[in-house]
Amino acid sequence: MAKTPDTVFVIDDDAAVREALQSLLRSVGLRAITFASARAFLASQRPDTSACLVLDVRLPGLSGLELQRELAAAQLDLPIIFITGHGDIPMTVQAMKAGAVEFLTKPFRDQDLLDAITQALERDRAARAQRAGLAEWHARYAQLTPREREVMRLVVSGFLNKQIAAELGISEITVKVHRGQVMQKMGAESVADLVRMADKLGIPTTKS
After folding, report:
1. Secondary structure (DSSP) of 21-78
2. Looking at the structure, do residues 32 and 117 belong to the same domain, yes or no?
3. Which of 74, 108, 133 is the last residue of a domain?
4. 51 near 30, Cβ under 8 Å?
5. pLDDT of 19 strictly over 50
6. Region at 29 (left for phi over 0; alpha for psi -120 to 50; beta for the rest)
7. Domain contains 2
8. Does any domain span residue 178?
9. Domain at 155, CATH number
């Protein structure tokens, strides 16, 4: 099955700018989907693929900075590259503090935009991989029995097998069996791995 290409969403109310950017992005093998307004973008069905947003600051209706805030509030972590013909220092600072990848003032060099897009897509791929990994850990954790979850919680809290046995009222051999099952089901190669997973999953630890 063919891989869905990386996608660059372009929002600019100037049709000539949209066409020029779409042509540029297609020339380097990227899929470009353009919108004349932020509202049109929000109403669209977006493909599930690595993506970033090239966003004009000044737009009719919802502005670029307002869209950035809306996406953040909705927890839509889409890397943004701002473009503007009216950039000023406070606006740039505001955009960058809110997580923008780059802020380019028109006219900008094509290569500067392509470099920023490359950086933005790499950021999105890393974030998507992290989310996928977390989802996988949640699925693995869901397969643990209640007893295995208890053992995992105590293991990542630093308890020794004999301490876990005393805490749970079971034999040390039984603890070893449960511990082995936990490591296997979670796909952990070491206790350090298990601790990292537990931290990302938000599993509370018990202090000895």
Report:
1. HHHHHHHTT-EEEEESSHHHHHTS---SSSEEEEEESS-SSS-HHHHHHHHHHTT---
2. yes
3. 133
4. no
5. yes
6. left
7. no
8. yes
9. 1.10.10.10
Overall pTM > 0.70? no
Flag whether 208 is in a domain. Answer: no
pLDDT in tens, 132-176: 878 888 899 999 999 999 999 999 999 999 999 999 999 999 999
Question: What's the pLDDT tens digit per position in 182-202?
Answer: 999 999 999 998 998 898 888
CATH number at residue 88: 3.40.50.2300
Residue with tokens 């493909």: 47
Q: For position 37, what pLDDT does the model report?
A: 93
pLDDT, residue 89, reads 67
User: Distance between CA atoms of 88 and 105, rounded to whole angstroms?
Assistant: 9
Residues 39 and 15 in one domain: yes
Is 153 found in the same domain as 125? no
Query: Which tokens is 6 given?
Result: 């990386």
Backbone angles phi, psi at 157, to 5 degrees: -85, -5
Q: Which residues partner with 62 through β-bridges? A: none
